[in-house]
Amino acid sequence: MLVVFNIIRIHNLISNTPTFIERGTVNVEYARALQQALSVNLTQVATIVIVGVGMTLVVATGGIDLSVGAVMAIAGQIAPLIFLGPIADRFGMGVANFLALTVPIAVAAGFGLMNGLMVTKLRFQPIIATLVVFIGGRGIAQVLTNGYLQPFKNPSFQYIALGRPLGIPTQVYIMFAVVLLALFLVRRTAFGRYVLAIGGNERAARLAGVPVGRVKTLVYVISGALAGIAGLIVVAINAASDANLNGMNMELDAIAATAVGGTPLTGGHANIVGTLLGALLIQLVRYSLISIGVPYEFALVVNAFIILLAVYFQRQRAA
């Protein structure tokens, strides 16, 4: 659907442009414009898919993770602090960039661990446990730099977002790698079966010997780590870290992609490919409406309607 829309839009653009007269020129410009449009859509949707995959695993256990946006902000603030600070001067940019790519993800996974422990050990409801980090996490991100924007220019670090191996943005490779790994995890490993069993009937899973606490905790760790990766991609794209905007409303986009993709919010099922397609559908609708001049606010209303329809059809199918 995404491809078809872009083909139609580009065809109309080229057909109505007088400079594209010669057939050879049209073919070249057509292919170039199509590639650019697809690249833009995939680039914009990559972080939603990465976070959405983690959200899908959490939802499959019957939980929810509202902290992903705040965790993105924290990871995005930490990375520039590393390669703009004394570490780069003392150990070199190579070491600084390595730490800037690994430490924020580890910290993000640590916040996921905290969420998991609050859910499994303290018996907090997932929405309450992750709401704690949702509220406090963004404050922590702002405190790290006193609320200031951190602009930078670091091509080596920014390659995770701005690199284009074989003409495809690096973050698109990361997105598909995350999707494929999650598919393998859910379909081919005992851990994946445990995740679905817990979401289907946690009490029965516990009686069957499933390590419920460890599995649920690990799911939140994965969600946190993926949010950290997405946070790094965002700051690499923007060449600046902004604790106020990085990851803003990402939890809503991730939940929407999960719901539209066919994963029931009651748990027991994880549709990883569906999350990818759900995110693409949401991006398609948003891109389509904005490209024809529809205000962004109205596009949000349409997206909300799509989510409502998706949840309705899920309930109908379950009934």
Can you give a write-up of this model?
The chain has a domain at 49-248. It is built from 14 helices and two strands. The chain has helices at residues 2-15, 23-60, 68-83, 86-91, 93-120, 126-144, 155-162, 170-188, 190-200, 202-207, 212-238, 250-260, 272-291, 296-318; strands at 150-151, 240-241. It has a two-stranded antiparallel sheet with strand order 1-2. Helix 3 (68-83) packs parallel to helix 6 and helix 12 crosses helix 13 (272-291). It starts with a helix and ends with a helix. Residues 1-5 and 7-21 have low confidence and may be disordered.
Q: Looking at the structure, what is the overall shape?
A: globular
Q: Write the H/E string, N to C.
A: HHHHHHEHHHHHEHHH
What number is the mean pLDDT?
A: 87
Enumerate the spans where pLDDT stays under 50 for 5 or more consecutive residues: 1-5, 7-21
Helix and strand topology:
Blueprint: H1 2-15, H2 23-60, H3 68-83, H4 86-91, H5 93-120, H6 126-144, E1 150-151, H7 155-162, H8 170-188, H9 190-200, H10 202-207, H11 212-238, E2 240-241, H12 250-260, H13 272-291, H14 296-318
Antiparallel strand pairs: 1-2
Concise summary:
By secondary structure, this protein is mainly alpha-helical. Helix content is 77%, strand content 1%.
Fill in the keyword field for this structure.
single chain, 319 residues, mainly alpha, two-stranded antiparallel sheet, 14 helices, disordered N terminus
